[in-house]
Amino acid sequence: MMGQAPTIEQIERHARAVLGKLPEPFASHLRDIVLIVEEFADEETLSEMEIEDPFALTGLYHGTPVGEKASASGSLPDRIHLYRRPILDEWCDTGERLDHLIAHVVIHEVGHHFGLSDDAMHALEEAAEGRA
Questions:
Q1: pTM of the entire structure?
Q2: Are 116 and 67 in contact, with CB atoms under 8 Å apart?
Q3: Average pLDDT over residues 55-77
């Protein structure tokens, strides 16, 4: 039995805990990141990404990757969006522990923020889990 589906607030708390466990240099760069948990991505986002099935998108990074940032002021803060229903759908489909799944999605989006390779994201995920 998998238990009761978590609320948006519970997913956000867990995702913030994951961000809080990331080592430097990641932690200092993520201090100002905005974390948003929503049921699904909006139609505009899905359309821009050419995704027809809203369950296909579990998370999204909006912003400029760290290596491409200029010292320009006035830009919106970077944001990580997590989508609750697709995460829960994947949780049910895979049987993966929910905390691991949320950590995986968060770290994948952080990886986009830093322009990391898949291997580097995997190593970061292992580092975050090792600190749990």
A1: 0.85
A2: no
A3: 76
